[in-house]
Automatic annotation (TrEMBL):
<dbReference type="GO" id="GO:0009228">
    <property type="term" value="P:thiamine biosynthetic process"/>
</dbReference>
<dbReference type="InterPro" id="IPR022998">
    <property type="entry name" value="ThiamineP_synth_TenI"/>
</dbReference>
<dbReference type="InterPro" id="IPR020084">
    <property type="entry name" value="NUDIX_hydrolase_CS"/>
</dbReference>
<keyword id="KW-0227">DNA damage</keyword>
<dbReference type="GO" id="GO:0044715">
    <property type="term" value="F:8-oxo-dGDP phosphatase activity"/>
</dbReference>
<dbReference type="InterPro" id="IPR047127">
    <property type="entry name" value="MutT-like"/>
</dbReference>
<dbReference type="Pfam" id="PF02581">
    <property type="entry name" value="TMP-TENI"/>
</dbReference>
<comment type="similarity">
    <text>Belongs to the Nudix hydrolase family.</text>
</comment>
<keyword id="KW-0515">Mutator protein</keyword>
<dbReference type="InterPro" id="IPR000086">
    <property type="entry name" value="NUDIX_hydrolase_dom"/>
</dbReference>
<dbReference type="InterPro" id="IPR013785">
    <property type="entry name" value="Aldolase_TIM"/>
</dbReference>
<dbReference type="GO" id="GO:0008413">
    <property type="term" value="F:8-oxo-7,8-dihydroguanosine triphosphate pyrophosphatase activity"/>
</dbReference>
<dbReference type="GO" id="GO:0044716">
    <property type="term" value="F:8-oxo-GDP phosphatase activity"/>
</dbReference>
<dbReference type="GO" id="GO:0006281">
    <property type="term" value="P:DNA repair"/>
</dbReference>
<feature type="domain" description="Nudix hydrolase">
    <location>
        <begin position="1"/>
        <end position="147"/>
    </location>
</feature>
<keyword id="KW-0378">Hydrolase</keyword>
<dbReference type="GO" id="GO:0035539">
    <property type="term" value="F:8-oxo-7,8-dihydrodeoxyguanosine triphosphate pyrophosphatase activity"/>
</dbReference>
Amino acid sequence: MKKIQVSLAVIEFDEQFLLGFRNKNQHQGDCYEFIGGKIDNNETPKSALIREVSEEIGVDIRHNHIINMGQIWHDYVEDNNDTDKHNTKSVVLFVFKVVFTRLQFDSLQGKKGAEQQPIVWVKKADLLNKKYPLPNANTRILTWLAFANQIVIGRELAYFADDEKLKTIENWVDFYADRLPKNAHFYARLKDHHEFNHHAITKLQKMRTDVVFLLSRADALSVEIKPAVVVLTYDDFCRGFADLAKDCCYFASCHNLDDVIKINALAKTHRVVGIFLSPVKATKTHPMAKPLGFEKFQALANHAHMPVFALGGLSPKDCQIAQRYGAYGVAGIRGFE
């Protein structure tokens, strides 16, 4: 099977994304695509990205904000009904989000690509709603783009404790119903109160239908409304993943290279859409855990095949610096309320 490595630029400006158009004569033609191309033998994925964007649309992105999104492994065996595996394409996509400046955005208005292929800016909502068909290997990118670059992690129920159990639930629900930003991504991590968790989570889900909920496996099984994402924790790593459903999206809490390698393997058979990598800095919730620091965080994040969210002692103000070290975004408790 022929293997190809490709760098892709998910180019964004003000909630708009740049797409090229593949003609009918190309493999998986007559559809749109992100800008990019093959990685040469002497190139890194990022250097290939910079070269391809320059060659295809004439824009220098060496000084742009470039965010690592992940890797996608895809075989085109079924796509082209080719029974000869020697002629079947297998690609590894190294995906980066590239934030354009206003000047770069304006420079492409009414322009075509270097090979006179049409290029078009499309609204994020239209892209996510699949109004612009993409090659099969690109569809996971839409799942990644649907995520905000900040994830709020909830406090456990014990923080809102009251002598009356129902009052504890009301305190938790009222706190987050009022404080969560519109369309927030919220990991409702209530921990050791599973007999009450489903009451609290279900009530908040019904009050805040705009919020994207992430839940632990135990909580996901108990609530009335299925969450968008199930989070795999240390306990799940210990139990193993043999019984995981394949119709869910998963996040994973990772702390070392072994965790990342296991999740990369799981992503080949399940929809793993992101990981929390922690702790980047010292935290009050886990005072005995040794912080990774940003350099070690980057070394681990570089191994991940999906977006990585930096967690531990961070606030939304740390998002850009975390992205410079390979994060897609940041997550946290105290700094995000």
